[in-house]
Amino acid sequence: VDVRLDLFAEIERLKKEKNAIVLAHYYQEPDIQDVADYIGDSLGLSQQAAKTDADIIVFAGVHFMAETAKILSPQKKVLLPDLKAGCSLADSAPPELFRKFKEKHPDHLVISYINCSAGIKALSDIICTSSNAEKIIESVPKDQPIIFAPDRNLGAYLAKKTGRDMLLWNGACMVHEIFSLEKITKLKIRHPKAKVIAHPECEAAVLDIADYIGSTTALLNFSKKDEAKEYIVVTETGILHQMQMENPSKTFIPAPPNNACACNDCPHMKLNTLEKLYLCMEYEEPEITMNEQLRIAAKKPIERMLEISA
Ligand code: 13P
Ligand code: SF4
User: Fold this and answer.
1) pTM above the 0.80 mark?
2) Which ligand is in closest contact with the Cα of 39?
3) What residue spans in the chain does CATH classification 3.40.50.10800 cover?
């Protein structure tokens, strides 16, 4: 990239010229959030992808998110600034292994968290996100056995909340697993008035001490309406950008990981940069493509989710 380019202006120009929309997840770097047309959590992003009339969707997020946009809007070109932006949670459920697991429990209904590949979606009955999971589970008759995949932490949290005994796939997110209960507790002693707000992908021990648990959008909304002045934020650091912008007089402290070498930035989300965003818009690649049979099979459970959460 020519260093003299004003990337913000160039991206705005390309959006207009190409009738492109930039959708960004809250875990993207601040510059990308500032240039996006819409910033949201997984549910909001998939709803936007389903309803946009843009010709090109530029997805500043990770692969499963861009894939979901393509599943919902196949006639549109979907671009992802870096195709290598994967997800440890999605990778923890390889479709072939999951198919075998599912075959062992033929009477179970499969509810999958949206953080999974199209292959897993195609093997699922309903998709959910962290903001609608309770509603989705409660839409299923009480005597219906459920498999929940791929996140065991979110699954255990939901099982406790809904009182449903769900069979959990043993997957987890590398970012949310590294938070240290001990370090958060020490931080809380130093900031006794701070509220702990956490994403449900965290382990149970961390969730047990949280004052509020929710999706990225839910955490942001809570930080706006709650009266506390300080928060310990137990999720990926990208969310702090909007929290700080929306609440300039409040303090947001990122929760510490379990060792000094670890970090609570998602290495996948952070593969996207403003430069890569500009280049992918200029050259219209890398593009998400998908086998049509797989797309149709993966679309059904996403549509069920969108219907239930409308
Ligand atoms: P939400 O933004 O839907 O809460 O998801 C968090 C996440 O880990 C996305 O990868
Ligand atoms: Fe996947 Fe975790 Fe990164 Fe979200 S934060 S994209 S769940 S690895």
Assistant:
1) yes
2) 1
3) 7-86+269-289, 89-173+297-308, 181-254
